[in-house]
Amino acid sequence: MLTSFRNFTSITSLYIEEIPNVKGLPNDFLQNHTLLDHLNIDKLRNLESLSNKILDNLFALKSLEIRNCDKLESLPEEGLQKFHSSEVLRIYQCRRLYSLPINGLCGLSSLRRLWIQSCAKFAYLFERVRYLTTLENLSPYDCPGLNCQRVSNISFLSDL
Question: pTM, whole model, 2 decimals?
């Protein structure tokens, strides 16, 4: 079923929802979707990882939302570096997600909103977040593993 989307190269928004037993998306799944500007991955309860290859050619992506992916532990390190036009990154209820990729934030030069909510194991917002100079809204909410000392070390948070 997932492979049938490869030929729809002119779509701009894609919602991937409630596909049971998917542990990973095929590497070439979004290879030809260079016009995609919104990607929403929701309720893939068994999704364990997203490879760098999946996000490789999504240069026009402005918004990435990942929700209710209970087994997702990490986001692709290199995959996020190419999202120069991305403005919104939302992550909700990914119970095993521990942190954002250390170097993955470097390419997000247009990011305005970063929301991480209800991620029980999320523990680190790396200092590199302060280099997101266009960031207007940082919202870590209901992440019990993220304590105040870790967040207060990011100097610009007091200005938001």
Answer: 0.84
